[in-house]
Design a protein that fits this description.
Blueprint: E1 5-7, H1 8-14, E2 18-20, E3 29-33, E4 36-40, E5 49-53, E6 59-60, E7 65-70, E8 75-77, E9 84-86, E10 90-98, E11 103-111, E12 114-118, E13 122-125, E14 130-132, E15 135-139, E16 149-154, E17 161-163, E18 169-172, E19 176-186, E20 191-200, E21 211-218, E22 221-234, E23 240-249, E24 257-265, E25 273-278, H2 282-285, E26 302-307, E27 314-318, E28 326-337, E29 344-356, E30 366-383
Length: about 375
């Protein structure tokens, strides 16, 4: 179980996937490709490429390159070609260095022959919620060995939650946690074990702090808890819109934002339901024209994820496929009146893809954002932007 870990090393590495080497002259970028790759233990990737890009799509020879990788316990590399060999499960940082010392970086994930990834280390729910444990399975040789099977078991008492041993479906009963569960994956030859946790939360007052847990998978990787807050607010045309802010703070008491997921819907949320999240371009997301302002006058549902680290930070907007603008969805599973001071308590989950602005033209700049939350929902009567 990875618990509340933020893998800033990965984000720091990929923030320099292309580096300006031109000084004060026209922009000339040193680029390594691919910026993100994966390999199984015992396998070797093809030689990597590195080039100079003038910003107009023209590539040129960067000159002699020396390749290194770290840590060597995870992967090794051919210093002349950049061919990476997987050694052990983990993540390695590949560095391509020119003779003048300018370097650019990429990330390689090394997997075991059979791999299981829990896509949410911790699941946050409200009593009465149900959710199936999201996970991903990778096999080095699918079809050549027995199909993999997963079994789940838990140390939970019946008063907190139950989990189906075959499907991983969790049913929240009462409050408590984090309470651990174990997932065992086997294909007849290999066995992989991982564990996660469930937190069951009940809020009685909209002034109470919500609970959440989010993950980010891609060139940046995160596993961390947050503080969610939802509001129905007044748009410029006086209609109501909805916004969920799921925030990770640098420290619990600092008030300084480290990372945030922001989901905006053009209409208010008045009950349970599933809401699509559409694509939005950086230009649309940053417009200053009032009637097109995506915060104060949203025309469609969209989402943003950003982090202040690594400097100058990562910013990414909801981004679907070329054939489908839908990037994901937000699901509200419970909509419960607060017992104290009025208002509403909601629970739910979100899953969507974003495209990093610093890697916007690279498909590997995509991240998958997932989260579960229990949050207060309040109504803001102030017109947005006033």
């Amino acid at each position: 179980m990875k618990r509340y870990v933020s893998a800033l090393l990965l984000a720091a590495a990929t923030a320099f996937a292309c580096v300006n080497v031109s000084g004060s002259g026209p922009q000339l970028l040193l680029v390594v490709a691919p910026v993100l790759d994966s390999v199984f233990v015992g396998d070797t990737l093809p030689a990597r490429s590195v080039y100079l890009d003038d910003g107009a799509g023209h590539h040129s020879d960067p000159g002699p390159i020396t390749w290194t990788v770290s840590p060597l316990s995870v992967a090794t590399i051919d210093a002349a070609t950049g061919r990476v060999a997987g050694v052990a499960k983990g993540t390695a940082i590949v560095v391509a260095t020119r003779t003048d010392g300018v370097a650019t970086r990429a990330v390689v994930n090394v997997s075991r022959p059979l791999e299981m990834t829990l896509q949410l280390d911790t699941i946050v729910v409200m009593p009465g919620d149900t959710i199936t444990v999201p996970l991903a399975i990778k096999q080095r040789a699918p079809g050549l060995i027995d199909p993999p099977t997963v079994r789940f078991d838990s140390s939970a008492t019946p008063s907190v939650y139950s989990i189906d041993t075959l499907s991983g479906r969790i049913t929240a009963v009462g409050t408590g946690g984090p309470v651990r569960y174990v997932a065992r994956l086997t294909d007849g030859t290999n066995t992989v074990i991982d564990s996660g946790a469930v937190v069951v939360v009940t809020l009685t007052d909209t002034s109470e702090t919500g609970r959440s847990f989010m993950t980010v998978f891609g060139t940046a990787i995160r596993h961390q808890r947050g503080v969610p807050l939802a509001r129905n607010y007044r748009r410029l045309n006086f209609k109501q819109a909805f916004q969920l802010a799921d925030t990770v703070y640098l420290t619990p008491t600092s008030g300084a934002i480290h990372e945030r997921v922001l989901i905006t819907l053009p209409d208010s949320v008045v009950g349970p339901g599933t809401f699509e999240i559409d694509s939005i371009s950086p230009q649309q997301a940053t417009t200053l024209i009032s009637q097109l302002n995506p915060y104060c006058q949203p025309k469609f549902p969209w989402a943003l994820w950003y982090s202040i680290l690594p400097t100058p930070g990562i910013r990414a907007y909801s981004h679907g496929t070329p054939s489908d603008s839908v990037a994901g969805q937000l699901t509200i599973t419970r909509f419960v009146p607060a017992l104290v001071s009025g208002g509403t308590i909601i629970s739910g989950r979100y899953e969507f893809t974003v495209r990093r602005t610093d890697l916007y033209d690279d498909p590997l700049g995509s991240e998958t954002i997932r989260g579960t939350f229990v949050a207060p929902l309040w109504t803001d009567g102030t017109t947005c932007g006033s």
